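Q: Give me the 3D complex with zinc ion.
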Amino acid sequence: MARPTHFTEALLLRSVDYRDADRIVTLLSRDHGPISALARGARKSRKRFGGSLEPCMLLRVELAETRGDLYRLASAEVKHHYANLASSLDSLRRAGAALRTLRALLPVEEPAEQAFASTLELFEHFDAHGSDRWQLLAFQFHLLALAGLTPDLERCDRCGREAPASRAVLLDAANGRVRCRDCGGAALYLCSAARHFIRAVTGPTFLDVEAPDERAWLQARGALEGLTAQHLSLELPGDPMD
Ligand SMILES: [Zn+2]
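A: Here is the predicted complex, encoded as structure tokens.
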């Protein structure tokens, strides 16, 4: 009896060769989050999936359930090719880092519709306007926020005193909160511009924000590294053009 198949939109996260003729693809799917699927014959014949198994393409895929852990990729077609993105080395490498971030952060086979929509938003922006390194960082903070790890930069975790918006804060990456100097302070210094950037990109929009200057970018980058290392034991990709 034929097993049921599902159609969904997807982005290719990774593709590895398997046996003589096949590939195992990791996809970020709109409906099921990250999944792995066996693409039979994908190595032997490029026609088999119409050249669709490339990064930077929005795909419509048909997934067949199997007895094992993997889906079978029954069909795949290109819905949209981000051609400008793919022709810019900077954008292509930043998009690759964004995909590696998704693979590192998202739990397998858990629906991740917002992360999927945000990834398309990032790719559309890269495709239309080119990329900047702060946009990759903004996307990574945005995913961290979706995972429920938005740092609280507003009040001291000990005495509860509010930090005025125009002031720098000291962040403790281990608990994702700030501590005032009177209470002993914390290791990561965030100037008011870095603080403002992090607050903006962990809100509802992550691209419609002012670009941070070099200093704020470096401090925000350090905060992301500290938070992901402490809470997720992860090292996220840095800007590939650095
Ligand atoms: Zn305090």
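A quick observation: DSSP finds six helices and nine strands in the chain.
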